[in-house]
């Protein structure tokens, strides 16, 4: 669809709402992997604000960055019946605080997927505080977000007493062995704790430093010799142009794809399936 397609769709939705004389009641919007980017997301956010009846919004893998996320956050608040938000694989970064503020105002939220969206530790803390008072949250996906133990523990403490929560994904973050143990201990009373997977954890910074120190202690002289060889190779052809990575479907989302993604299932996030009533 792209940016232009997103703008055209937004205009069409606003026109439909106007022509229906208030009877237009769209409940689900799904537009994943469409390269909407900021401008497309901003245009659609205006349509969402106008509609106000949405319960499901799925916009994964659209190359949306902070300006687009902030615009969507404003629109979310105007749709108080939102039960599912999926912004998986966009770039939330600095907009995490504004998104969290919107989430806090959505008491009916059941599923929140912010996986692979670079919310980082501060963003995780903001999300944790936003969902602390939620009573309907069932699934929370925050994997692959560069979250360190401090942020993950805030999430764990926020959800540990939620009777409705059935799934929590924190895999692919930066917790390390000690951090993972802390998370499991904090969530020991949750039925899903034994199903939580941490196989893709990136490790804590402290663990990485210890491993590097151990390597250098064993053979500093050899390391220096290999470093010199590597430097010679790096600068052997100073006039050569840097080789660019081949363009791939994930090029516009900030990382190069390593394999063809599986067919997209609109009701599956990877850990659990959520059966939402078709509206």
Automatic annotation (TrEMBL):
GO terms for molecular function: GTPase activator activity; small GTPase binding. The keyword Repeat applies. Coiled coil: none annotated. Keywords: GTPase activation, Leucine-rich repeat, Repeat. Residues 199-247 have a biased composition (Acidic residues). Residues 199-267 are annotated as: Disordered. It comes from the Eukaryota. GO terms for biological process: nucleocytoplasmic transport. GO terms for cellular component: cytosol; nucleus; perinuclear region of cytoplasm. This is Ran GTPase-activating protein 1. It comes from Rotaria magnacalcarata.
